[in-house]
Amino acid sequence: MVNSILLKEYATEYQSQVVDLILHIQQNEYHIAITKEDQPDLLDIENFYQHGNGNFWVALREGIVVGTVALLDIGNHKTALRKMFVKQNYRGKAFNVSNQLLQHAIEWAKKRSVEGIYLGTTPQFVAAHRFYEKNGFVSIAPDELPMGFPIMKVDTKFYKYTIQ
Length: 164
Prior knowledge:
Mean pLDDT: 94
Number of helices: 4
Shape: globular
Strand order of the largest sheet: 1-2-3-4-5-7-6
Distance between the termini: 31 Å
Radius of gyration: 15 Å
Structural class: alpha+beta
Helix content: 25-40%
Low-confidence stretches: none
Oligomer: single chain
Protein name: GNAT family acetyltransferase
Organism: Paenibacillus jamilae
């Protein structure tokens, strides 16, 4: 069943599906008061993410976007993990979408000599915290974030993954 998920680099044809997926999860599942306008990166993914050590990927099932992940180049061989979202029906071991997306991003970063991947998340994403910790991310204090790390106003919990 895992083979039915295809990971692809983001292309403009997926923009409306990406925006709909992310907003649905943020607003309807987690009740975060955030809009499309609060996330200008979603309206210009190519220019925001797809350069240097950054990129954006979608997980597809039969041509439908069921997950996203991005790396934002923040300089000095460091990236920020952003926009890690998976449609509710595709979470967990059956499809393994989250793990596939995260491992794909980590492997991509390794090939580009990225040294660290940082991320910020919200307190209510408890399952996400467990997922990141299980995958080698370590909780860090905000003052341990590198210069250039974009702190979102909703993020208060931060992690770092060190690439060996």
